[in-house]
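Problem 12. The chain below contains 107 residues. Write out its predicted structure in token notation.
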Amino acid sequence: MIEITVASALIVLYLVLNREDVYEVQVAYASAFMVIYLAIYLYVPPKLGITATHLGQVFGFVPTVSFGAILFPELNVRFPVGVTRFCGWLGLVVVFSILCVLKVFVW
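Solution.
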């Protein structure tokens, strides 16, 4: 459930920091994708019977960092905004794909 709180906090922070600017379409798509991801991750059975730190990091931390990279690409000063957003999308889509495969075939 902490994932929902962190994702909500990131969205609110983005809205507060960019209230004068026009909101980007990528941010809306990323927010919708994150809502779908969290719904599948937290509420769609089956759930893994054991708890492991690495699973929490893969399915909780990686999507959150990827979502943050899409919302705030200017925080990464080493790479252009487009590269940072691409890496954010890549992280979200790869973890979402792994989650779907595990939910359908393994768990």
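Discussion. Residues 81-106 form the longest helix (26 residues). Students who got a different answer should revisit the alignment rule from Section 12.3.
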